[in-house]
Amino acid sequence: MDQVDFEPAQNWVATVLRPDDHHLEDNLLVRELFKPPVIIRSGGGVHNFLYQLRLSPEGSHLLKVEGSNVLGKLQITWRTNLGEPGRLQTQNILGSPIVHKDIELGAVEVPPVIIFEKPFLVRFNLTNQTDRILGPFEVQMSQSESLDEKPVMVNGLQTTFLPHVEPFNSSEFHLDLIAVKQGIQKITGITIFDKHEKKTYDSLFELEIFVYAE
């Protein structure tokens, strides 16, 4: 066995991890992967190859558009006992399908201290992950739970209106919330309705908070 190379797809950058890399010394899992024997001979033997894949800057945009899950190919070269060269290239190696939602919702700013039954503001960021204009939107908190069971509710107007969002762009907004239960709670149930496409997005966001008595 002369060499084993991993040729990443254009969306990825590959780094081979070696047992003598200083930053791997404390990684028990990697040390187990590189346990001897490490030489492949005609009589047998084992050599483990470990590659770390990172999404390339150019690949980030392509994956959002195409949803490709091709990782790359392995190229193996060797020599026979008589010194004749051999070469094998595998078919495309596929990873788990990469699924990107049309929109992504995240919390940008949350108060460090949240007090029971006192309103607080959370700043959100809504990102359009498609190549088309989305919106305008209506943002609401789902009423799937009864008011007695819901630990965090909207304080004031129940619907927030957002303008359309350009492709691969984002928009920020605030929600005025109030916690009606103490201790560890979760902000859930935020739904976003695209008025143009008549499409509802839910289960986009879940955030654990701690609610103080005072």
Structural class: mainly beta
User: What is the overall number of helices?
Assistant: 2
CATH homologous superfamily assignment of the largest domain: Immunoglobulins
**Average pLDDT value?**
82
Order of helices and strands: EEHEHEEEEEEEEEEEEEE
Unreliably modeled segments? 36-40
Q: How many domains? A: 2
GO cellular component, one term: TRAPPIII protein complex
Domain Trafficking protein particle complex subunit 13 middle: 1-92
Domain Trafficking protein particle complex subunit 13 C-terminal: 112-203
InterPro entries: TRAPPC13, TRAPPC13_C, TRAPPC13_M
Quick recap:
By secondary structure, the chain is mainly beta. The chain contains 2 helices and 17 strands.
